[in-house]
Specification:
This protein is α/β, with parallel strands linked by helices and about 280 residues long. The chain has one domain: Rossmann fold (3-Layer(aba) Sandwich), CATH 3.40.50.1820. It has nine helices and six strands, in the order H-H-E-H-E-H-E-H-E-H-H-E-H-E-H. The chain has helices spanning about 15-40, 40-45, 80-90, 105-125, 135-150, 175-180, 185-195, 215-220, 245-285; strands at about 65-70, 95-100, 130-135, 155-160, 200-210, 230-235. A six-stranded parallel sheet has the order 2-1-3-4-5-6, with helices on both faces. The protein is globular, with a radius of gyration of 20 Å.
């Protein structure tokens, strides 16, 4: 069950444009201030350390499934710090940032490398599957990796956050092939909309009602992807959604519950194999 503050499609309040612009600028400034330190491995480890005294989960209660975080256009590791802190508090030991250059590579190339990064993360953790959370462009990259590069068998839960699944007009201002792929009606977005998606893969799309970059209608997935769940993050903008308490509570709860479900399923399968082996031994005797 996904914790959510509000139903998927409530009546949205009238947009406060000046307030939303000020909020986005504040979030941009916060990210810009932490980005230089987050670029170094030592600084990134220090920034993502939980700020509370609560001890992280340990032992068998600690989640085993790797989580791969994919930033958006012009983003980086700094944007994920609030989520990384929360995941650390919950005992997630295998959290990976996938970074890329939007000016020298295309979306399919970025997606191909993401699929390889996910395979490496699973091998490192000794698991079969990973969970992926993609913000903005990162959500489109995630869909492309599933559609074109065979990520689906490796993926347990696919989470997009403020992703322009139907494009964004802001991309008209950006240079290069990546920005062109995010424009409404682009060939890549049309291909992804036509894609036949596996019903076994769980998709969750978070969207914000104060987002000036990606409209709510573009960030939702329900109706396009079978079984997808749309979750509103109220009062948040395009960058602020990543540090909004409603989003952090919901997505951490989702990833934790999915990990527990997988552990229970694995234990049940192991028990069935053990019982089957005992039955074979008894018949042989």
């Amino acid at each position: 069950m996904i914790p959510t503050a509000l139903p998927a499609r409530p009546r949205h309040p009238v947009l406060d444009l000046p307030g939303s612009v000020a909020r986005e600028l504040g979030e941009l400034a916060t990210t810009a201030l932490t980005a230089p330190l987050a670029c170094t491995e030592l600084g990134h480890r220090a920034l993502r350390r939980p700020l509370t005294a609560r001890a992280p989960r340990a032992g068998s209660d600690a989640p085993r499934t790797p989580v791969v975080l994919v930033h958006g256009y012009g983003g980086g590791r700094a944007g994920w710090l609030p989520l990384e802190r929360r995941l650390a508090r919950e005992g997630f030991r295998h959290v990976h940032n996938y970074t890329y250059d939007v000016l020298t590579r295309s979306v399919p190339e970025i997606a191909r490398a993401l699929a390889a990064r996910c395979a490496a993360a699973a091998e490192e953790a000794g698991t079969e599957r990973v969970d992926v959370v993609g913000h903005s462009l990162g959500g489109v990259v995630l869909r492309c990796a599933v559609a074109r590069h065979g990520l689906a068998p490796r993926l347990s839960t696919a989470v997009t956050v403020a992703a322009p699944h139907r494009g964004t007009r802001v991309a008209l201002l950006g240079p290069g092939t990546v920005a062109a792929s995010l424009r409404p009606g682009s060939a890549l977005l049309a291909e992804l909309c036509r894609q036949t998606w596996s019903s076994d893969l769980r998709w969750v799309a978070y969207y914000a009602d104060r987002d000036l970059v990606v409209p709510a209608g573009s960030a939702r997935l329900a109706g396009d992807v079978p079984g997808a769940r749309d979750v509103l993050v109220p009062g948040a903008g395009h960058l602020g959604v990543l540090r909004a308490p409603a989003f952090l509570d919901s997505v951490v709860g989702l990833l934790r519950d999915r990990d527990r479900d997988r552990d229970r399923a694995t234990a049940a399968a192991t028990d069935r194999r053990r019982r089957g082996g005992q039955a074979v031994d008894a018949r042989a005797a």
